[in-house]
Amino acid sequence: xxxxxxxxxxxxxxxxxxxxxxxxxxxxxxxxxxxxxxxxxxxxxxxxxxxxxxxxxxxxxxxxxxxxxxxxxxxxxxxxxxxxxxxxxxxxxxxxxxxxxxxxxxxxxxxxxxxxxxxxxxxxxxxxxxxxxxxxxxxxxxxxxxxxxxxxxxxxxxxxxxxxxxxxxxxxxxxxxxxxxxxxxxxxxxxxxxxxxxxxxxxxxxxxxxxxxxxxxxxxxxxxxxxxxxxxxxxxxxxxxxxxxxxx
Length: 248
What we know:
By secondary structure, the chain is of the alpha+beta class. It contains eight helices and twelve strands. Strand 9 (151-159), helix 5 (164-178) and strand 10 form a beta-alpha-beta unit.
């Protein structure tokens, strides 16, 4: 087993040298410069306790926005316009909810205090973004991630009511399509994301797409979108789905 130990130097080993499970390196820090370098290199941090663990799995689940799967049930829910959706209105609230809500298969969270501080700083610099879903003026769902160029790296999502996180993802997909983003990096495969269109690509393919996506220019700023209509988003995505099906 060969896992690289990171020191103060701002450098990562070749991602292709990662272990079969994807573990590449340990140590280092969560400074803004190191995090941005990691994402641009196809690497992400994932750990519960120190030291920091850095990963680049051999197969990478990604959602290509134009291939997002809008289920009939989600389409009907969004048509009702029962949720209010915003972008970057309450990043802190979203990451706090993601950190505090326990997963079905885990008793704790991987979002440490150190990680919260690091991503809040990325948000203040315009690199990290959130999508909030509101019902009766209460935050009931959302997601957050990092954006570099035309690549979006999903970090976590939460849902306090049924389908709220799916609505957040659908609204994010609409934004990414309209702004010509290449993909959403899902990092770790799970059944929920697979049902919504995530597919696994080999690491070498992912790294090539990543290199092109992160080389593109995109404005670094808050993605402020107040009172986004989920009905309009549903119509937009369904139109894309119909057009895509006509070519098959």
